[in-house]
Amino acid sequence: MTTRWLLDKIPPLSRILLLIFIFGSFCVWWFSLEPYVLLVPGLTISRFYIWNVLTYSLVDVPLWEMGLLVAPLGFLYSMLERSWGVVPLLLFIGFVSLSSACSSILLLVVLYTWKRDETLLYVPLSGSMAILGGLLVAVKQLIPEHEIYILPRRFGFRILVNDMPFWFLLVCVSSSWLMKSVWIGPWWLLPLFGVWNSWLYLRYIQKREYGRGDRSDSFRLYTLLPMKVGGRWWWIRNKRDENTSASHRQENYPNDILPVTTTDPTEAERRRQRALRALDERLGNLKTTKDEAEMV
Fold first, then answer.
1. Where on the phi/psi map is residue 241: left (φ > 0), alpha (ψ -120 to 50), or beta?
2. What is the band of 292 on the pLDDT scale with cuts at 50, 70, 90?
3. CB 121 within 8 Å of CB 41
4. Of the candidates 201, 221, 208, which has an alpha carbon nearest to the alpha carbon of residue 95?
5. Do the Cβ atoms of 166 and 104 come closer than 8 Å?
6. Which tens digit of pLDDT belongs to each residue from 32-51?
C-alpha cells in the first residue's frame, strides 16, 4: 500500500525514468553490458557505439552508487516535471547527457594524447552524476532561496538550494581524490560537465515565455558559487559599475524619464522571495530585541 501511494505521487515521466534507472542498472551489472550501455570513449569512437551518449545517463554501475542516487533523482525529476512539463524536461536531460558525453570524450582524448595511457579511453562512465548535477542547477534556478535541513531542525544544519551545485561538485572532487581517481574518475569529470552544460542550457538555450534562456542577474555564472561568495562579487561589481550606470542614465534620459522595463515572471518571483526572506529576518530580529528588553 505504501509503495503504491509513493508511485502515485511520482509524475509519469519521472516514474518511467526511475524504473529504467533501477532495472537498467541491475541488468547492466548482472549481464555485464557495460561496453554496450555505458560510455566507453574508445568503443564509442572505434566501434561507433553512438547510442552510448544517451543510454549512459539512464543507468548507473556499481549498484551501491545507484542506490545512493535513486532518492535524489526521483525527487528532482518529480519537481522539475511538475514545474516544466514532460517535453522541456526531456529536452533538458537529452542536452545535458549529450553535451556531457561529448565533452568527456574530447577531454579524455586530449588526456590520452598527452599521457599515452590507453586506460583513459576504456573506462566505462555512467552519466547519472552528470544528470544529478544538472538537475541541481535547474532547481537552484527555480528556488534559490529555499533552505534544506540536512539534519533535524534543532541542530540548525541547513543548506541553501542556491549553494547545492557548488557543494555537490566539492563532494565529487573530494571523493575522486580519496579514491585515487583524479584523472579518470567519473566522480569529478561528469558532474563538472553536467553542472556547466546545464547552466549553459538554462542561461542561453531553454525556450521560455519571453525568449530563450534566463538572462537575469540572479542566474549569472558566479551565482554557482555559494551565496556569501557570490554576494561579495556582486557587491564589488555594483560598486564598480555604479558611476558608469548613473552617467549613462543621465546622458540617455536627461529629463529624468526612465524607460519601462519588463520583468520575467521567474525573476519577479525570485525578488519576491528575497524580499519576504529579508522581511522575516527583520521581524525575527525585532522580536528577539523586544523579548530581551522585556526580560530586563
1. alpha
2. low
3. yes
4. 201
5. no
6. 999 999 999 888 888 888 99
Domain 2-217 architecture: Up-down Bundle (1.20)
* Distance, CA of 281 to CA of 284 (rounded, Å): 5
CA distances from 242 to 234, 237, 238, 239 (A): 12, 8, 6, 5
Residue with cell 530581551: 292
Reported pTM: 0.80
The H or E element that residue 111 is part of is helix 86-115
Burial tier of 83 (Cβ tally within 10 Å: 0-12, 13-18, 19+):
middle
Give the other-Cβ count within 10 Å of 141's Cβ.
23
> Domain limits of the chain?
2-217, 263-296
Residues comprising the chain, all counted:
296
Report residue 294 as a C-alpha cell.
Answer: 522585556
Rounded alpha-carbon distances, angstroms, from residue 169 to 34, 80, 193, 196: 25, 21, 10, 11
- Residue 61 CB partners (closer than 8 Å, separation 6+): 25, 28, 29, 34, 38, 124, 126
Q: Which three cell numbers stand for residue 77?
A: 525529476
